[in-house]
Amino acid sequence: EGSDRKRHQCTRHYSKHARVPMATDRALPLIDLSRFTAGSAEERAAEAAKWDDTFRTTGFCLLTGYESILPESLINDLRREAAAFFALPAEDKMRARVDGVVGYLGYGDENVAATLGKKTVGADLVESLNFSGYQ
């Protein structure tokens, strides 16, 4: 219990050593945008390669260094709006659902491991809001 609690705390505080409690207990990939935006050519290439590998294999990461390109007020506004959206009743959030991939996805709608062809016990216990600008 103590180690699970510690992992949850690390993840919540976006530690460089954040770990997620999952069957394999692998470290959650960290992508540092400041290394890409202000680093040397080698650092930018390494971070870009890490980004590519992370989204080809894991599908998500902890993003750090975004403060180097986004104003703090925008970050705070986004956090506030996201918290307000996810606090809405499920039926209100479902109005933002588009097609099961884009828009709101509720608990049980996603299964990241299955998209990688891995056997799973069930769907992910997560909700998300996915935007289509990059798809």
What does this molecule look like?
The protein is mainly α and 135 residues long. 42% of the residues lie in helices and 9% in strands. The chain contains six helices and four strands; from the N terminus they run H-E-H-H-E-H-H-E-H-E. The strands form two sheets. Strands 1-2 form a two-stranded parallel sheet. The model is unreliable at 1-24 (pLDDT under 50).
Provide tags for this entry.
135 residues; mainly alpha; 42% helix
Give the N-to-C terminal Cα separation: 39 Å
SS field, number of helical segments: 6
Question: Roughly how many Å is the radius of gyration?
Answer: 17 Å
Number of strands: 4
Provide the structure class.
mainly alpha
Give the proportion of residues in helices.
40-55%
Question: How would a crystallographer describe the biggest sheet?
Answer: 2 strands, parallel
Order of helix and strand elements from N to C terminus? HEHHEHHEHE
Mean pLDDT, nearest integer?
77
Low-confidence stretches: 1-24
Summarize the helices and strands and which ones pair or pack.
Layout: H1 2-12, E1 30-32, H2 33-38, H3 41-57, E2 62-64, H4 72-86, H5 90-93, E3 103-105, H6 112-115, E4 128-130
Parallel strand pairs: 1-2
Antiparallel strand pairs: 3-4
Brief overview, please?
By secondary structure, the protein is mainly α. 42% of the residues lie in helices and 9% in strands. The protein contains 6 helices and 4 strands; from the N terminus they run H-E-H-H-E-H-H-E-H-E.
